[in-house]
UniProtKB/TrEMBL annotation:
Record-given protein name: Glycine--tRNA ligase
Pfam families: HGTP_anticodon, tRNA-synt_2b
Protein source organism: Sphingobacterium bovistauri
EC supergroup of this enzyme: ligase
Record keywords: Aminoacyl-tRNA synthetase, ATP-binding, Cytoplasm, Ligase, Nucleotide-binding, Protein biosynthesis
CDD domains: GlyRS-like_core, GlyRS_anticodon
Main subcellular location: cytoplasm
Entry similarity comment: Belongs to the class-II aminoacyl-tRNA synthetase family.
Residue sites binding ATP per the record: R222, N223, E224, E304, V305, G348, L349, D350, R351
Assembly and oligomerization: Homodimer.
Length: 489
């Protein structure tokens, strides 16, 4: 990571804290590693991103419905899914720092450094070596790669490594009042299995016909060893997943369709297309016959934001075997019973949050010949902005606050609005720029006479004079979900 990109990433982290987007969890107790809390503005942005995803999946598609499955599931669920036996990461410890790392991520960081240093051939060869080792589950080879490329511990700076071994990522706990009779259960490491075990319930009660999808947003938990890259990798995180059930033999057609659909969804937020790329998996999961990641170019390199996987019939077939319940669908069009194939789209909400934040945070130089000036602005798409508009009386007297409060009382019924009367109007504009508010409404002395106010536009900083009774329709048109969703149809 260059100094410039490193500084930008530090700016993202500090800006997120300073303006109430993201805090370190339990910070007054020195924090909890790889766990974060969303503040007053962060929770608003996060909820808006969930709403955008839910509307695009469930509201726009008549053959997709949503559920909300429990976090706790019968422990046999995770035996059937393969998580009990196979949900592992290759871990390595540094004997000097006593820190534990994912071996593959240490190597990936080295690949990124090679690319940034202009050593693309070396990066490509290292990537190939890593892929071969992962495909062969060759843990000894992973350690050899780390040693051959002089990869050191970021903390101690030494190469005093242990052997690489597998580490299960599931959290477990006890369910039951009595310790002797308690049952071992797991915090779910993914939300997908809650969809699979409810496949028949949803299909029958919703009278769903193949192809159809089940969507879900929910928390998942993984005992990630490394706390790194802010909210990129956390122990408690949120997923937005779609499991789309299709007729066997049609899965690749749907896989390619969802691959294109999902990238289009990201770009509709106003992101730079050059910041995104597809990355096909070199090593497929045991349940997949095709897999691709949508990656975003973060300050620390291209990383996965969303995965699209063709999961075949593995999950439903496994649950049929372990539960002894038939997970079949009768297809009247071909007069056959079969276990459907599944195409999955899975996006990490926290990673999406970081993507949107990184894409929106801009430092603008507004200097002129007369004076030096600049601003920091979050250029969120208006539909997902945490605060839609701020109402600002020009002064704290002469009836202006009362008029501003009157305007706010009407607007807050439909939109999240802030009121601010402290400091000069220029400072207040800058504060709203820094939290991504699309519109500022200034109430001045003339407003008391003509019932008109000034709207300032965040991105252009242009101002226009409008009637107070038109404010709701003007703001509503500009922050409407329709502006986003129409780009997806």
């Amino acid at each position: 990571m260059s100094k410039q990109t490193d500084d930008f990433f530090k700016n993202i982290v500090s800006h997120a804290k300073e303006y109430g987007f993201v805090f370190q969890s339990s910070e007054i107790y020195d924090g909890l590693s790889a766990v974060y809390d969303y503040g007053q503005l962060g929770s608003e942005l996060k909820n808006n991103l969930k709403t955008y995803w839910w509307k695009s999946m469930v509201q726009l598609n008549e053959n997709i419905v949503g559920i909300d499955a429990a976090i706790f599931m019968h422990p046999t669920t995770w035996k059937a899914s393969g998580h009990v036996d196979g949900f592992n990461d290759p871990m390595i410890d540094n004997k000097d720092s006593k820190k534990r790392y994912r071996a593959d991520q240490l190597i990936e960081d080295k690949i990124d450094r090679y690319e940034k240093d202009g050593k693309s051939d070396k990066a490509a060869q290292l990537q190939q070596d890593l892929d071969n080792a992962l495909n062969a589950d060759d843990l000894a080879r992973l350690k050899t790669i780390i040693e051959d490329h002089n990869i050191v511990c970021p903390i101690s700076g030494t190469k005093n490594w242990t052997d690489v071994r597998q580490f299960n990522l599931m959290f477990d706990t006890q369910m039951g009042a009595m310790a002797d009779g308690a049952e071992k259960v797991y915090l779910r490491p993914e939300t997908a299995q809650g969809i699979f075990v409810n496949f028949l319930n949803v299909q029958k009660t919703g009278r769903m016909k193949i192809p159809f999808g089940i969507a879900q947003i929910g928390k998942a938990f993984r005992n990630e060893v490394i706390a790194r890259q802010f909210i990129m990798r956390m122990r408690e995180f949120e997923q937005m997943e779609l499991q789309f059930f299709v007729r066997p033999g049609t899965e690749m057609e749907w896989y390619n369709k969802w691959k294109e659909t999902r990238l289009k969804w990201h770009l509709a937020l106003g992101s730079n297309p050059e910041k995104y790329r597809y990355h096909d998996h070199a090593k497929l999961a045991h349940y997949a016959n095709a897999a691709v990641d949508i990656e975003y170019d973060f300050p620390f390199g291209f990383k996965e934001v969303e995965g699209i996987h063709s999961r075949t019939d593995f999950d439903l077939k496994q649950h049929q075997e372990y539960s002894k319940k038939k997970m079949q669908y009768f297809d009247p069009e071909i007069n056959q019973n079969y276990i459907p194939y599944v195409v999955e789209t899975s996006i990490g909400l926290d990673r999406l949050f970081l993507t949107v934040f990184a894409n929106s945070l801009v430092h603008e130089d507004l200097s002129t010949e007369e004076k030096q000036d600049s601003r920091v602005v979050l250029k969120f798409h208006p539909a997902i902005a945490p605060v839609k508009a701020a109402v600002l009386p020009l002064t704290k007297k002469d009836g202006l606050p009362e008029k501003a409060r009157e305007i706010m009382a009407k607007l807050k019924l439909d939109y999240n609005i802030q009121y601010d009367e402290k400091d000069a109007i220029g400072k207040r504009y800058r504060r709203q720029d820094a939290i991504g508010t699309p519109y500022c409404i200034t109430v001045d002395h003339q407003s008391l006479e003509d019932n008109m106010v000034t709207i300032r536009h965040r991105d252009s900083m242009e101002q226009e004079r409008v009637a107070i009774d038109q404010l709701s329709s003007i703001i509503g048109e500009r922050v409407s979900w329709t502006n986003l969703l129409t780009q997806l149809i």
